[in-house]
Amino acid sequence: METMKAVRIHKYGGPEVLVYEDAPKPKPGKDDILVRVHSAGVNPVDWKIREGHFKLLLRYKFPLILGWDFSGVVEEIGSNVSKFKPGDEVFSRPDIAREGAYAEYIAAKADEVAYKPKSIDHVHAAAVPLAGLTAWQSLFDAAKLSSGQKVLIHAAAGGVGHFAVQFAKWKGAHVIGTASGRNAEFLRSLGGDEFIDYTKERFEEKVKDIDVVFDTMGGEIMERSIGVLRKGGTLVSILEPLSRIKGLLKGRKAHFVFVQPNAEDLEEIAALIDDGKIKPVVENIFSLAEARKAHDLMQSGHTRGKIVLKVKPS
Question: Considering the entire predicted model, what is its pTM?
Answer without folding.
Answer: 0.95
